Structures are given as C-alpha cells and as structure tokens.
Prior knowledge:
By secondary structure, this protein is α+β, with helices and mostly antiparallel strands. It contains 26 helices and 12 strands. The protein has helices at residues 2-41, 99-105, 123-127, 146-153, 209-215, 234-238, 257-266, 294-304, 308-335, 344-383, 385-421, 425-461, 468-508, 521-555, 561-589, 595-621, 625-650, 652-662, 666-712, 715-737, 742-785, 795-836, 849-882, 884-926, 930-967, 969-976, and strands spanning 92-95, 113-118, 134-138, 141-142, 161-168, 171-178, 202-206, 224-229, 245-249, 252-253, 271-278, 281-288. A hairpin with a 2-residue loop joins strand 11 and strand 12 (281-288).
Amino acid sequence: MEQIEQSDRQKNAQAIYLRWLMLLAGMMAVTVPYVIYDHMFGADKASINVAAPQVPPVAVNVDVAASKAPPVDVAFVALTAAESGGGVYLGIDAGDIDAVVAGQLGLSSTCGVLVNAVIPGSPAATAGLERGDVLISLDNRPVTGLDGLKALVATLTPSQVVRVVFIRDGVKKSAYITVAGTTAILRTAAAAPPSDSQAWGMTVGPLTSKLRATYGIPDDLNGVAVLGVTPGGQADTAGIRMGDVISGLDKTATADMQDFFKAAYADDSKTSLLNVYSQGQFQYIALNSLQGNAVDAAVVNLLADQSAPYYISILHYVMIVGVIGFIAAIYIYFSLFRYSPGNEKMQYIARKIRSGTSVFLKQEYKTAAFYLMVFFIALSFMLGISTGGAFILGAFCSMLPGWIGIRAATIANVRTCQAAKEENGLHKALQIAFRGGAVMGLAVASIGIIGLCGYILIVMAGQNPKTVVYVVTGFAFGASFFALLGRVGGGIFTKSADIGADMVGKLELGLREDDARNPAVIADNVGDNVGDVAGMGADLFESYIAALVGTVIMAMSMPKPMQYMTLPFVLAAIGLLASMISMLVGRLFMRTANPQGFLKNMIFLSGIIFAAGAFAATSIMTGDMKLFLVILIGVACGTLVSVEVEFFASGKKPMKYVTRMSKAGAGTNIISGLVVGFQGAFLPMVTVCAAVIVIVSLAGAYGLGLSAVAMLATIAITMCVDAYGPIVDNAGGIAQMSGAKPEVRRITDILDVAGNTTAAIGKGFSITAGIVTALAYFGAYASRIGFEGVELFNTRALVGLFIGATFPFLFAALTMGAVSHIAERLVSETRRQMREIKGLLSGEAAPQSDRCIEIISRDSLRGSILTGLIAVAMPFIITVAAGINALAGFLVGAMVVGSILGMAMSIGGATWDNAKKYIERERDAHGGMDEAYKAAVVGDMVGDPFKDVAGPSMNILIKLMITVALVLCPILLKLAQ
Length: 977
C-alpha cells in the first residue's frame, strides 16, 4: 500500500513538473520571437506622409566673448533652399559626434550624427526618432558627420520616402520618413569637454527680492538664480555668471527651483539648452547634462518630488508593521518555555549544544567587530558618518536575527524531542519546531524593515537627500559583509564537524548517526545551528536587504522617486503580514496535517495572501498594472525554479541514478552527483533568463529589483521552514544520544525529511532572487559609473571578464580548502580521543566534545575573514591594475559564472546528501547495500561543502563585490585616472 502511495505521489510530482515545463516553454515561445524581431527590425514603420509644418524663425543672441577657452559653438546652422536641393525638411536638430560624446556612446567619432532635438510634428518626430538617437544611414547611404548629412539631404526631394537607420540605447533600429518640403535643418552646439565631476558646476537658488535688487532682475521674470559658478566647470566655460537667471531649459519654462530640477533631470541627452537672462539679454548655451552624475541626478529628483511627505508617512506605517512582527517574534520565543525540556540527560545534551553554539558566536562576533570597526572608520572618512553608520547598522541587523534565531532553536530542539515522546508526538513536535523556526523568520523580516526603513527616514528627516544613495548601499554593504562571514564561517564549522564525525564514526568505526560516543557529534549538532540557523539567517537577510536596496536605487532615477522607493517597502510589509496570517491560520490545521504538506501549504498560503495585497498596493500607489505583473512573474519564477531545484536535488529519478552508481563505489557516486548538479543548473538558469527578459521589457531595471522583493517578501515563512530543519535535526540527535526509543527517532526523521524537501523551495527563491538582485545591482553600478555601453571586446574589459569568471572558482577553492583542512584536524582529534580515552567506545567514558568545538571555531573564522577581505579588496585591485573598464568586465564575469557555479554546487551537494539518506533508509528497511552506503557517505562528505559553504556563498560574494563597487565608485573612478 505504501509503495502504491509513493508511486501516486511520484506521478503527481511528475505531472506538476511537466505543467511547469509547459509554462516555461510558453514563456520562451512568446519572449524569444519578440526579442529576435526587436533586435533585427527595431522600429521599422510604414511610409509616413505629413504636411510641411511652418518653422518659426529663430532669434539667437550669442555672447561668445564671455566664454573662456575652449569656446563653445552655439550657432544654429540652417541649410538654404539652394544647399538642400530645392528645399526639404526632416525636422531633425543634429550635431557632430565629438570625441567626448563618442566615448560616452561607445562609437567612432566619425560614425553618424547625434540627434540633439526633434521638432514636434515634424516628419522625424512622426516617424519615431527621439533625442539622443545616432543617425548612421540615410536612404541606405552611410552618414559620417554633419557635412555628410548635409550632402545626403541635398540629394533628396520633397515627398521622397527615405529609410533612416539609427542607434538607440545601443540597438540598431530603422524608420521610414516621407521628406517634406521646406527649408531648415538645425543643429545644436557641440558639448564642451566635461569636467571630472560631469556636473554643471554651478549653484542655483530661488529668486529673492534681495537678488532682484542686487542684479537688476525684473519683477516679472521667474526662474532660478545662479548663486555661484565653479571655476573651469561647464557653466564657467559656457559664460554663465553669478546673478544670471535661468528661466528655461530646452524650451521648458522654469518658474522656480522644483521646475528647474524636474526639467534638469528630464534632460537625458549629453547637451542641454538653457535660456539664461544676463543683464537683460537672453542666450542659448549648450551644457553637459546632470545625467553624468547619478548621485546629483537622484538628488534633484528627490527635491523635485512634491509627494515626498505623503510617502514618508507611508514608510512610518511600514515601520509599525516591522515593530509588530518583531513583537510577535519575541512573544513566540517566550512561549517556547511553556513546553517540557525532557529528562536530565536530554537537558544536559541540549546545554552542551547551546554552550558550544555560544562559544562559536562569541568568537565570531569578537572577530567580526574588529574588521567592522576598520571599515566603519574608512567609510566614515571617505563618504561621511552617515554611510559609515549605515554600514555598521547593516552588519548589526544581519547579526541580530541569527543570534535571536539560535537562542530559539537551542531552546526548541530539546522540547521538540520531548514532544515526540508524548501522545500525539508527531504533530506536537511539529508545532514546537515550527514555532522555533517562526522566531527566526519573523526576526529576519521585521529587523530588515525596521533597520533599513528606519535609517532612511532618519536621513530624510535630516533633509540631506544626497546621502540616501550612499546610505542604502552602505547598509547593504554591512549586511553583505557580515553575511559572508556568517555564511562562510558557519558553513565551514558545520561541514568540518559533519565530515569529521562521518569519517571516523561511520566509515572507520561503523557507528550510527549522532552516536554519543563520537566526540564530533556535539560539534556536528552545534554546526547545524551556527551554519543552518545563524549562517542561513544572515544569508537570507542579506538577500532580502539587497533586493530592497537595489529597488530603491533604481527608484531614485525615476520621475517620482519617493513613490517607487516606498513601493518595495510596502510589499515587504505586506509579505510580513501575509506570513503572520499564515502562521495563525496554520495552527488550525497543524494537528491533523501531514508535516510535509503542512509546510508547503504555509508557503503557498502566504504567497496567495501576498499576491492579493500586492495587487491592492500597486493599484493604489501607482495604478501601473505592469508592476503587478512583474511581481507575479517574480513569484512564479521563484516557484518554478524551486520546483526544478527540488526535482534534481531530491527527485526519485536522480536519487535512483546516484544510488545505482553508488553500488560501483565512491568514484562513480561522485561523478553521478556532479552530473546531476551540472544538469540541474541548466533549466533554472533558462527560467531566470526568460523571466528577466519579460520583466525588463515590462518595467526595466526597476522591475528586476521589484521582482526580487516579491520573491523574498514572504521571507518570514521561508526562513521559518529553513530554521525548522536544524531544530528537528538536533531533536533527532538528542533522541539518539539520550537513548530514546526508536519510535522517537522515527518521528524526528519524518519531520526532518519534510523540512529538507520544503527547504528546497526556500533555497530556490533565495537563489533566484540573488541572481535577479545581482543583475539589478550591476545595472545600478553601470548607471552610476557611466558604463552602460562598455564594448565586450575592449581589451581591458575582456581581461576583466576572464578574471571575474575565474574568481568564483578561487573563492570556492578557498572555502572548500578550509573545510578540508579543519576536517583533517578534527579527524585527528577524534581518533586521538578514541585511542586515548579508556572506555569511550564502550560508553563508560564521555568524549571531550568541547575540544572539538574549540578547534573548529578558531580555524573556521580565520577562513571566513580571509575570503571576506579578498572579496572586498578585488574591486580595488582590478581597478588599480587594469582600470574601470576591466572592473566592469570583472563584475560581469563573476556574476555570470558565480551564479551558475553556485546553482550547480547547491544542487549537486543536495543530491549527494539525499542519495545517502535514501540508501540509508533502504539499508535499514531491507538490509544489505553496505558498500553503496559507504560510497554515499563519501559523496555526502564531498557534497557538504558544495551545498552549505561554497555554493550558497556565491550569491553573497557577487552582491558584496558589486556593492563595494557601487558604494565606492567615486573613489574607484579616481583610482582609475
């Protein structure tokens, strides 16, 4: 009967997997043809006939004498009827591409002309040309500069249909234009060489009565007053002087400061046309755009957003939700003490695990504190105290949920074991373990909201919006740095202990799992807490924060930044509320539900509630249903990747394949695990890529960040399920070491299997969100640094690409090498105790487990600090050695290879682990398979650092390096010069 039920479950799982594959195929079928069409044909349109518009005369008053060297060409050049072959009109305001603009666009300076403006209602405007396009071909003939364009236009006649080929955002497009009959092709002035800051180099302020009286400014003239001009800057070069009034920008009137800021940021070209009133004269002047400096662009955007107070009030409500979540976590924590901790022997073992955990955490926090203080001082000196404070706060908030979670886990483990011994033990043990995990989940979500949202509110209250960009990235930097220490350090600890315990206990002495005579067993149980609770908590907290920060950075470059900055925090608050509602509802079904089904239903229920809340939030706040679609795609992508990861990591077919290979020995077991890992990485990456294409087409880079927030919005439930696993694993160890009945261990094993299966869903969401967030982060970095168009085959970029692609392998080697080194020391110590402590094997003497914990704690922290410092240093090293282009290539290479390698290692490691458990169950049920079991144990020891150290650390590594580049890009730019 049990075999029939297993067969039915397998068929159902296969049917679900096939449905997801069909959905993915449908997404690809829609997306790929669209992308191919867009790139091949661009904006091709049908022939357009328009009447010749009346071109108003242009009155230009030029004061070139006021300019300093080099002079700025501000003349409008008009083609006469004779020059244009009878008089034709396109309506394009174009200019030569000088070396500066060519470098910014990644083009040859002789390639085409730059469209500085398109006259409204003209043939060019009707055909879809826009400011910033680069014309490269007219009527199938190349355009090689303004003179070349003039020569081509001279051959045209009115009503002639010509095909214009142009480049927009790095993509070749085309349009058909019907030439109109009139006279005038205009070009704007060429841009002066930009200053190092890429800013305009002037300070503006509101017009006051004192300024009007001082400079003789008429009362009926509105605009902004120039209060200062930076020597040698763009404004100085163009001839602007203190006391001038800017009343218009690119034919847009500016009546006050907010109008000016809006118009300045809306100007996305490399030149800007200012209407400057200077001692009673107006003049048109071309200046470099504010877009060159993303920080300044974000500042003017924030200052221009009149709705900021409304959204700041919403952020206060988000904070209240975070506080409610934290209070709920504390309440659940204290509720655990109501349950019985069992007999004295069980409590003794639990105290040993708790004390070992405390030893490691104290050493970790003490070691991390020194390096965090060094970075705090450096960041405060270079970028200001607010950024340094944000770094420290981010690191502290990353640490705090892990500390709270471990306290809850080490209290819940022994109580879960005791509950398994009582009546209705399965469901009572499930309840306690789930509540213990809920403390961790709620702590991660609520502390993330309180920490990041609260610090942003403090900065905004200080009315210094320029620091917001640095604050959010500084907060993310602190979270990422500590997450790497916690994840790598905790992972090295737990896997070194696991390997040391298995090599001596299982392979050499034939002891069972968690045998009390094995000196490394307590260390192994301690490792479950420091690696899978504190380490995983810091990991998911970092992913959660990174998704929020990436979205905030993207929002700051949008027309209404506060609206789009607030939306991800609202989604996070909705996700936290959805998780708490799911936990409350789950209590009604916990006593009758299957453990695995219960955990999955909690995840899916919170997702449904979140989706409903997200629909309401996007409708009310933006009215843009594309954003809601992006949120749904993000959740669907995370779910699909989770199903795919679960299939390869724990599906029947991969398990049977690895089991069959294990019968031949350890070598074939390892090869088969690698095969499954490499195969398993392909489909999830295709899924992510398909989702990214659709998301970007709907909402751009902002959509990437928003989708990542949606994937992790219900992190409270996700982290609850992850923390649940180590609790029931520890409960099983306590049952084994305390001599409990086999029925107790059977119950804890059932709970453990359920946790391992559902944890794959959480890992799928985490991995997917990490990849998508890394893409959003890199987009923010490229925007800040001004390298959206770096050529792939630029030598330095290509060199950086190869080094970046190699670096994840070096990082994996360092972390796995640390595991191997510490495991070797632990094996030696375990053998020594077995050899020297009389009566240990017979159970008459107790092992020296504290000695094992001391060895692992010290060495694992050294390994984590080394990898963390290397990750932080690499952006500096690459920039100094090869330049900023190489750094861009380095980050791309590390992002691509690290994501794939991390996915493959996580899946492969989980496959080895699950195969070992599968063989272990078959051996216990039917006997035999001893050789296959030993081979599987070897494979599991190889897979442990794959899935719990190197693999999951890849996403943290990538985001940490991009965050460093993002925070310190002004310094990196100076180093590159």
